[in-house]
């Protein structure tokens, strides 16, 4: 069989005809897509579009009502703890421990995954360097800027060497300079081969960072493709930039 006709590698994330109901509210409606290793994929949409429901579902902390879902080859409803142990999560709101310094936040989080103390120490130092926070290692969280806190939260999400890193609105509330510094760190993760799934309101962020966009609205997929293909398909001679608020 030629390489051209060979089957592609199994996706890390496989979502097929998934529905999620909260009572009578249909939060996700017959959603299907696949994400492969090394991709950066953005879920792009406004409030109540289904982004947060999706992130909870693929983060193995919320269940689907119907449909098929495979994360790293496993059904999260049956293998939730194993799936979660191989994911990294960066929540929308920083939830760092304000009683600890930057390095201690990383060390303690590594211990939650059962990593030996020596490994946690080594990883904490490596991740502080990755986040450009070496000189803030002994600083308490409250002494860090918003951009520094976001970089530390991302570093914490990498402590267990995750196959997939989930980022919920990673740059919301940051100034333009802090956003670009954060983008640089996410590009570095892509170069390492980490698969990134992020949500965002910002089309410019999705365009800069992502290999592929999944546009969602009211729990449905409205469009999917590369940033360039979606712009080419949906733009006209007059371009109107819309930011979801």
Polypeptide structure, described:
The chain is an alpha/beta fold and 245 residues long. It is 33% helix and 24% strand. It contains eight helices and nine strands. It has helices at 51-58, 80-84, 102-112, 117-130, 146-157, 176-192, 203-209, 227-234, and strands at residues 13-22, 25-35, 40-44, 66-71, 87-90, 164-168, 195-200, 212-217, 220-225. A six-stranded mixed sheet has the order 5-6-7-3-8-9, with helices on both faces. A three-stranded antiparallel sheet has the order 2-1-4, covered by helices on one side. A hairpin with a 2-residue loop joins strand 1 (13-22) and strand 2. Helix 3 (102-112) packs across helix 4 (117-130) and helix 5 runs parallel beside helix 6. The termini are far apart. Residues 1-7 have low confidence and may be disordered.
Number of helices: 8
Instruction: State mean pLDDT (0 to 100 scale).
Output: 89
- What amount of the residues lies in strands? 15-25%
Structural class: alpha/beta
Order of helices and strands: EEEHEHEHHHEHEHEEH
Rounded to an integer in angstroms, the radius of gyration calculated over CA atoms is 19 Å
Intertermini distance:
49 Å
State the share of residues found in helices, binned by percent. 25-40%
**Strand neighbour order, sheet with most strands:** 5-6-7-3-8-9
Please give the number of β-strands.
Answer: 9
Uncertain stretches: 1-7
Shape: globular
Main beta sheet: 6 strands, mixed
């Amino acid at each position: 069989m030629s390489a051209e006709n060979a089957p592609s590698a199994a996706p890390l994330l496989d979502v097929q005809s998934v529905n999620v109901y909260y009572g009578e509210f249909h939060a996700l409606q017959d959603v299907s897509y696949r994400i492969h290793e090394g991709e950066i994929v953005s879920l792009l949409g406004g409030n109540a579009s289904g982004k947060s429901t999706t992130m909870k579902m693929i983060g193995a902390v919320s269940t689907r009502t119907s449909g098929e879902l495979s994360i790293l080859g496993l059904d999260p409803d049956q293998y939730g703890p194993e799936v979660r142990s191989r994911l990294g999560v960066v929540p929308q709101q920083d939830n760092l421990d304000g009683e600890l310094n930057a390095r201690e936040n990383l060390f303690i989080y590594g211990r939650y995954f059962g990593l030996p103390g020596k490994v946690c120490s080594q990883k904490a130092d490596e991740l502080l360097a990755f986040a450009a926070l070496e000189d803030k290692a002994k600083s308490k969280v409250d002494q860090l800027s918003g951009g520094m806190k976001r970089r530390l939260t991302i570093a914490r999400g990498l402590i267990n060497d995750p196959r997939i890193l989930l980022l919920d609105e990673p740059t919301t509330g940051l100034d333009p300079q802090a956003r670009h510094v954060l983008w640089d760190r996410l590009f570095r993760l892509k170069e390492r081969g980490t698969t990134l799934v992020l949500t965002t309101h910002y089309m410019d962020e999705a365009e800069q960072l992502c290999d592929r966009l999944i546009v969602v609205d009211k729990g449905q997929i409205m469009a999917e493709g590369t940033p360039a293909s979606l712009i080419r398909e949906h733009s006209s001679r007059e371009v109107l930039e819309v930011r979801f608020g």
